[in-house]
Fold this sequence. Notes:
Layout: E1 2-3, H1 5-11, H2 14-24, E2 29-31, E3 37-39, E4 53-57, E5 65-69, E6 75-77, H3 78-88, H4 95-106, E7 111-112, H5 115-136, H6 160-164, H7 169-174, E8 178-180, E9 185-191, E10 197-204, H8 207-211, E11 216-218, E12 220-221, E13 224-225, H9 237-247, E14 249-253, H10 256-266, E15 272-274, H11 282-290, E16 295-298, H12 310-323, E17 331-334, H13 353-361, E18 364-366
Parallel strand pairs: 14-15, 14-16, 16-17
Antiparallel strand pairs: 1-7, 2-3, 3-4, 4-5, 5-6, 8-9, 9-10, 10-11, 12-13, 17-18
Helix pairs in contact: 2-3, 3-4
Amino acid sequence: xxxxxxxxxxxxxxxxxxxxxxxxxxxxxxxxxxxxxxxxxxxxxxxxxxxxxxxxxxxxxxxxxxxxxxxxxxxxxxxxxxxxxxxxxxxxxxxxxxxxxxxxxxxxxxxxxxxxxxxxxxxxxxxxxxxxxxxxxxxxxxxxxxxxxxxxxxxxxxxxxxxxxxxxxxxxxxxxxxxxxxxxxxxxxxxxxxxxxxxxxxxxxxxxxxxxxxxxxxxxxxxxxxxxxxxxxxxxxxxxxxxxxxxxxxxxxxxxxxxxxxxxxxxxxxxxxxxxxxxxxxxxxxxxxxxxxxxxxxxxxxxxxxxxxxxxxxxxxxxxxxxxxxxxxxxxxxxxxxxxxxxxxxxxxxxxxxxxxxxxxxxxxxxxxx
Length: 370
């Protein structure tokens, strides 16, 4: 007999999850307006110190509780959290050891009989073979589609906050930006390259949400979180694919707002996308490569004040690691502010078209990693 990971996961409560996180080193948590628990990214990241590790309940899934980290955009179950937390502590454990750990901490011990093991092994090998086949085809995961009628809930008018920040009315209309008075949020629909609605994020306007570092979050309607795996899509690609291919280049920002600003600046020549985080995933790299571009510009938010500081150096090294994912396939540049044109946490697009183009002109080419 062996421990039943699925059954143990189904029986876990929020209190069990809190107990597990506490035992892993940090049980501090907050709750958002929908009651979701939020933990510190210290649990899974070497330098994590923000409350951006969200816990979602997915009753229809084999694994009831799912964590989503809004720092790295990864999604995983409680067993993977244990593995990552232990790895961060210098301890390597296997999946069965993680299951045993969760079972012991939560006092939820359920077993499967041995005769099921062979069936599951066969299923696993079939799955591995299918995975190898799909990897050979370099496929990009297709995300679940959301009913378009949901957008009718929101008020289809631009919000003054973004108008004041320089985003034009036509650009907001093009990207279907709207407003939800019930939660006081600017609504941002996300579409895949084929135009399918795959997620809806909200830009919080309430001070309490901003202070809790919940500025950009998926919205919840009637108990359903309208989220998607951010790392499996590029915001703005649906609208800008033609311009990107025509111009042979792409600029990558962190947030949706930067794409909207670029649409206001360049309209039909907007060649920008957003990764909606501070990482470029392997899937996003495959999407970029599939566009056939010869030039990539990484234009992430400024994370330093002094361009000669150690913080700026660390930021540069972080961007280098991302750039190396693409240097074998195209010319990659970094946008670095060395002249104090931006404030800390600014996107290169935040201070207007002229500043953005000045940063583009002084872009730094990244050589292939040796």
